[in-house]
User: What shape does this take?
Amino acid sequence: MTEEEYIDQQIKRNVVITTIDKIYNWGRRSSVWPMSFGLACCAFEMICAAAARFDLARFGMEMMRPTPRQADLMIVAGTVTKKMAPQVVRLYDQMPEPKYVLAMGACAISGGPFKDTYNVVNGIDTYLPVDVYVPGCPPRPEALLEGFIKLHQMIEGQTILTSPWYRKEVEREMPVPVLGPQGLVIPGEGDE
Amino acid sequence: MSREVYERLVEEFPETSLEYLEEKDPAISVKADDLFEVARHLKEKQGYDYLSAVTGVDYPDRFEVVYHLYSMREKKGVVVLKVHASKEDPEVPSLVPLWPGANFQEREVYDLIGIRFAGHPDLKRVLLWEGYEGHPLRKDFPTEGYQTIGQEELS
Assistant: This one.
């Protein structure tokens, strides 16, 4: 074996040519840290998905962070009441970019059985940009895992060049609604 | 159980207008003015030391507050008291001085039905937020609730 052949072999074994996006997204999607908070019964399915039988660690998602400042993914697991919605939006605003939202269960998607009642928000996508919807009442852990796989696919499809979170001109902060006399009001947007 | 309690109450309070309601769950109807004295008698003389539930009901012609009393010490109950309140000005006396556990339950009835409890130490909303308009479990409250304002702008 000549020296040139040897170097060729070593290059084949040790050098990978890929794109920045691919390796960057691979790293990001392999360790999405969810924020650990639950609003209603869906939270138990989420807890179950994190435990031994379903094991979120297989997806690199076992690090449930109790603070929004270390979380990448917000799992809105359960009914969002009007009294809770401002806190949920505030938590979202405190998460660092890039951040994702997964609406888990019928209530978080649309209000579910409580749609159009006096105390429940008609889906958290009224106030937050939701990336993945996982339907069910509550969804089984397998459904939640499917939602995570969908989220991973979505992350892999993103590119740094067009990602909104590196652009200064894009306003990513969501306005926090306040409690008004007849429901939630977004400040500065008028009364109607 | 309610029958003996009712008969003893009639002996004890001959001048008040009590009524025995013979239903599936027998109850004793009390006027709002006499409620506190009757409740005090039940607690102190007959041993009903536990107020299990305070419930508000919205009937077409009246409001009603229902009290469920048990005795933990003597293991007896239930005694059901029913009090009427008018549609225009629903107010009944508070039972917090007798059973401190009535505090949050009366606040909940006030919050959702809008019956005021005279003498309550801190009568404000407990489930909904301060500044909410209306009482959502009343029958004249719109079924669909109020539309969330600001919904159209974002979606």
Notes: The two ends of chain A are 80 Å apart (CA to CA).
